[in-house]
Amino acid sequence: MNSPATLRCHSPISTFRKPNYSGRRLVCNVKLPSNCKFSSNHNCFKSFTANRSEFAAHQSIGYWRIGGASSNDAQSVEESFGEFITSERVKVVAMLGLSLALCNADRVVMSVAIVPLSLSHGWRQSFAGVVQSSFLWGYLISPIAGGTLVDYYGGKLVMAWGVALWSMATLLTPWAAEASLWALLAMRMLLGVAEGVALPCMNNMIARWFPPTERSRAVGLAMAGFQLGSAIGLTLSPILMSQGGLFGPFVIFGLSGFLWVLVWVSATSSTPEQSRQISIHELRYIQNKGQIRSVVEGKSKTSKGIPPFRRLLSKLPTWSIIVANAMHSWGFFVILSWMPIYFKTIYHVDLRQAAWFSAVPWSMMALTGYFAGVLSDMMIQRGISVTLTRKVMQSIGFFGPGFALIGLTMAPSPSMASAWLTLAVGLKAFSHCGFLVNLQEISPQYSGVLHGLSNTAGTFAAIIGTVGAGFFVELVGSFKGFLLLTAFMYFSAAVFWNIFSTGLRVNFDDST
Description:
transmembrane, two-stranded antiparallel sheet, chloroplast, MFS_trans_sf, mainly alpha, membrane, Growth Hormone, Chain: A, two-stranded antiparallel ribbon, 512 residues
């Protein structure tokens, strides 16, 4: 029933052996002599067949398209919603979402554990902020190096090592806390070093698996896992500590990470061409959407040497992403680290309630993040420019939280405070469809290192914000002034983004 795929041309060329894939014709869009045609009536006809693995092995020759030779093929390859949900690329992004959930759950355990640790060790609030920020000291080191490794080795390998290392650090944290303060700080730093590769890996994998018209929702799905990790960590940690002591949540989340690595290594691949599970229909869909071309072009321009940091930093669109990431991280880590203590000190709720009040907003952020991704993709599909779409998303993601934090400072009850905080964090998710997706658009070949640069700036801001909040509260006696300062910074960063950002490709290959 399945006939061999055929290649016909008007001039002698090398014989290519490619898979038949259920009888469909395999058309090669490689650079051939100008008189080479895919025709049905010429004597230099070649028949060729091969196994599936050879398809991926020959990707370096050029760009392959599965299907007939007509120009209407790209239009005929479409997917239903059901096919999208059950596709291999959604499985990949679901695994990324799980890894980011573990990433955030592992880091927020300390936000709850810091309360009993502070009581048992007699730490002041300012020193508690130093302990919490020790994670960020490690996180400061790895994003640039990690982003460069991701661009070169691919997201699968780097993410596997990252999750394995941060799971080990999580597992060993309670033993380190019993041993000495320096051991505790070292484990928190190792956690930060390993988690620094998570978001560059996510960005790299999505750039390779998803066409441009689906990237926003893919980022929304992955980041939904990230936010749910915060909610899971903040909600379960007090319960696990009440049952198993300080060791409980660290052991559970650490072992979960090792289980994730086993599934990730056996069930995913860095690119669609390397996947053994992907269907021919999905592969054809991704390729006809232009995804493979952009990735191969990006690889061809990426050398094994040091990235052009001077040229990357010479462009204002890069700085718009750096400023946006810095502000995003400032607000994110201040809220993540201090909200349980905020509800405990301002509204006098117990630790379990404090964790619950501060966990609800992250669940909302997961929902609004995916909604923002779908809305962003719809705007682009309906003809709105990528640049305008990113500006709109980023404006909602920064102006919204700024106004909501002002409302939070005036909330008369913990319920109203939780409502304002939920609004702030929920609207914050729109920025994922601003600066976070924009990395792939202005330079797909350097998306990893750009993410690393902006993450490093974000980590600096997060350290200053997390430690600064503790000292500010100790000096002034209230969180409210610090929240108002954060709101003003949100407004300023939104204005900077709207002036200097772009959704167009930026040329980083020359110094002009």
